[in-house]
Write a structure and sequence with these properties.
The complex is a heterodimer of chains A (320) and B (246). Chain A is an alpha/beta fold and 320 residues long. Chain A has 2 domains: 2-171, Rossmann fold (3-Layer(aba) Sandwich); 195-319, Rossmann fold. Chain A is 27% helix and 27% strand. In chain A, the strands form 4 sheets. Chain A has a 7-stranded parallel β-sheet with strand order 7-10-6-1-4-5-11, sandwiched between helices. A 5-stranded parallel β-sheet of chain A has the order 14-13-15-16-17. With 246 residues, chain B is an alpha/beta fold. Chain B has one domain (2-215): Rossmann fold, CATH 3.40.50. Chain B has helices at residues 37-54, 69-78, 93-104, 126-134, 187-193, 232-241; strands spanning 2-6, 9-11, 19-20, 25-26, 33-35, 57-63, 82-86, 111-115, 138-148, 151-158, 161-168, 171-175, 198-201, 210-216, 225-226. In chain B, the strands form 3 sheets. In chain B, strands 11-10-9-12-8-1-6-7-13 form a 9-stranded mixed β-sheet, sandwiched between helices. A two-stranded antiparallel sheet of chain B has the order 2-5. In chain B, a hairpin with a 4-residue loop joins strand 3 and strand 4. The termini of chain B are far apart. Classes of the chains: A alpha/beta (320), B alpha/beta (246). Chains A and B meet through helix 2, helix 3, strand 7, strand 8 and strand 9 of A and helix 1, helix 3, helix 4, strand 9 and strand 10 of B. Strand 17 (296-299) of chain A pairs parallel with strand 15 (225-226) of chain B.
Chain lengths: 320, 246
């Protein structure tokens, strides 16, 4: 009996979410006394690295059709691998791919599932998985009662931990049905950590007054190694691209640090960032509702505070 | 083109979230319930736009008790032709998907649309599970959807970008921002919604293998630690030494 991890690769390379899922899966395996095996699909250059994050065995299904995502062919390949490898618990990432297949895999495997687990399960009495719900305003505890289980792990819910060495990748053969959905184009921003994976985020809102003022936001983000984000009015007015919009209708993120600059903190915005571990708010209005959700705050003019903060970060970096 | 839009009922985005009975039940007193915004703004409106341009019908479906008729009538007021309600308080995403699939198997729809997730449980599971039960392709988080003949072109959100894909109908698609703009029902819509057909059908037996047993509210955040605007060095020190995030 094994915990099977589906380790997701993007353009041939495993990313942070795969190492998070593997770390989570290994801890579940240890809690339940199971073996931990990881499965990768298509061409993956660094699959062996999963061993360092706790996978005792690493498999690859080297079928080129899997280099493009299709929910049915992925579900079929993963479910077949799960069964061949004696799977009892399947762990994957709550990413764009994970969200397309977690429900499918649960049905295919006749397994209870939790989408977006925020912590490890409690296995002392049942199999109870915590998950953040109501956009971060509560935690729900799901009891999975079926023998087979599917868990997708929320980004940044667990820190990838190196606990061993890379292992040799074994090949696994399953039959993969032809994809019915054809990917015809992929457009990704290169060189920055995508927002859903970012552990540090610098975000700005209407307080910036004009899109030409964004230089200080980008500079602060660059000094911190952070990803930039924005509020809804900013993306709606076309000041910033839509993929930067965090909030209820945009994307929900859970970075370690969220710095909100010139954002008042409407409830719809908070819904996208409530799960951030630490929130810093910089706003000239001391009554801005965001201060109630913040850990640290500076009441002041952002056009003075942000450049000063950039200098402070530079000084910090040169002394550490 | 026959379009089915699956709608869900959720607490209003500004509702105070609280629980009763040792965290087992949602505290619904005084809470206003709405149609899940992603179902309403994106799935329903895009379904209507496509059928208005190309001909066809939009049916809405919901799993819920008679309390949900308010949001179903709203969907009819926005423009759906008819509605189906499966008469059961849903117990899980698994339950909803199985109830929907049992009904849809006896019908034939070209497009089955639903929101990317519900704003209460944030699962993103029903669409994928439903597609599996119906043996149909599934595309999640669509931010563009066009149909020409029997071919759909879809753009969807992925980490740090978008992916454009093509597939033949029928399809299950979950809908995200960008797909359409919210529509406010007009007076004529509200009047006609009262007489549009709403079929109530009985649920099938299911057994959910994963159910919520209780909820907890997060510990209250400590009140904000304010730092003088001149003292950004202190903020950086606190982020490093106290919060340990940089």
């Amino acid at each position: 009996m094994s915990v099977i991890i589906f380790a997701e690769a993007v353009e041939g390379s495993l990313k942070k979410s795969a190492f998070e899922a593997t770390t989570y899966g290994r801890k579940v395996a240890d809690l339940c006394g199971l073996t931990c095996k990881a499965v990768t699909l298509g061409t993956v250059e660094n699959a062996g690295e999963l061993g360092a994050y706790g996978a005792q065995e690493v498999y690859n299904i080297a079928d080129n059709s899997l280099n493009q995502f299709d929910s049915q062919s992925y579900t079929s390949a993963i479910a077949d691998a799960f069964n061949q490898l004696g799977g009892t618990i399947l762990v994957l990432s709550h990413t764009a791919i994970g969200k397309s297949i977690t429900g499918r895999l649960a049905v295919r495997l006749n397994a209870g599932s939790v989408s977006g687990a925020s912590e490890l399960p409690n296995v002392s009495d049942g199999f109870i998985v915590p998950k953040s719900v109501y956009s971060g305003k509560a935690t729900a505890f799901y009891n999975i009662t079926s023998d087979k289980k599917v868990i997708s792990v929320m980004g940044n819910a667990i820190k990838p931990e190196k606990s061993g060495e890379a292992v040799a990748v074994q090949s696994l053969s399953v039959s993969v049905p032809a994809a019915k959905v054809k990917v015809i184009e992929r457009k990704t921003v290169s060189g920055v950590v995508p927002l859903p994976e970012a552990s540090l985020v610098v975000s700005a809102g209407r307080g910036m007054k004009d899109p030409s003022n964004w230089g200080i936001i980008e500079q602060l983000a660059a000094e911190l190694g952070a990803t930039t984000a924005c509020s809804r009015p900013v993306s709606d007015s076309g000041w910033r691209p839509h993929h930067e919009h965090v909030g209820q209708t945009g994307i929900a993120i859970r970075p370690n640090l969220y710095i909100a600059i010139g954002i008042s903190g409407a409830i719809q915005h908070l819904a996208g960032v409530n799960n951030s571990r630490v929130i810093v708010v910089i706003n000239k209005d001391p009554e801005a509702p965001f201060f109630k959700a913040a850990d640290y705050g500076i009441v002041g003019d952002l056009f003075e505070v942000v450049p000063r903060l950039i200098e402070s970060v530079k000084r910090f970096k040169s002394s550490h | 083109m026959k379009v089915l839009v699956c709608i869900s009922k959720t607490p209003d985005t500004t509702a105070k979230i609280a629980f009763q009975n040792d965290g087992k039940a949602f505290q619904a007193d005084g809470v206003q319930f709405i149609m899940n915004p992603y179902d309403e703004w994106f799935a329903l409106v895009r379904g209507l736009e496509l059928t208005e341009a190309q001909g066809g019908t939009v049916t809405v479906i919901n799993v819920g008790t008679a309390d949900n008729d308010t949001i179903i009538r709203k969907a009819l007021a926005i423009g759906a032709q008819d509605a189906v309600r499966i008469n059961k308080e849903p117990e899980s995403a698994w339950d909803v998907a199985h109830q929907l699939a049992a009904y849809i198997k006896s019908q034939s729809y070209d497009l089955i649309l639903l929101g990317k997730e519900t704003i209460d449980y944030n699962d993103s599971e029903v669409g994928a599970a439903l597609a599996e039960l119906l043996d149909l392709p599934f595309i999640s988080y669509a931010n563009k959807l066009d149909v020409s003949g029997t071919t759909a072109t879809i753009s969807r959100e992925i980490e740090g970008g978008t992916e454009v894909m093509e597939a033949s109908l029928p399809l299950v698609i979950s809908c995200a921002q960008g797909l359409a703009q919210q529509r406010i029902p007009n007076m004529k819509g509200i009047m006609t919604s009262k007489t549009k057909p709403l079929a109530v059908i009985e649920p099938v037996a299911t057994s959910s293998p994963s159910v919520i047993i209780r909820h907890e509210l997060p510990p209250a955040r400590k009140s904000v630690h304010l730092i003088a605007p001149e003292d950004t060095d202190e903020l950086v020190r606190l982020l490093h030494e106290e919060a340990k995030v940089i």
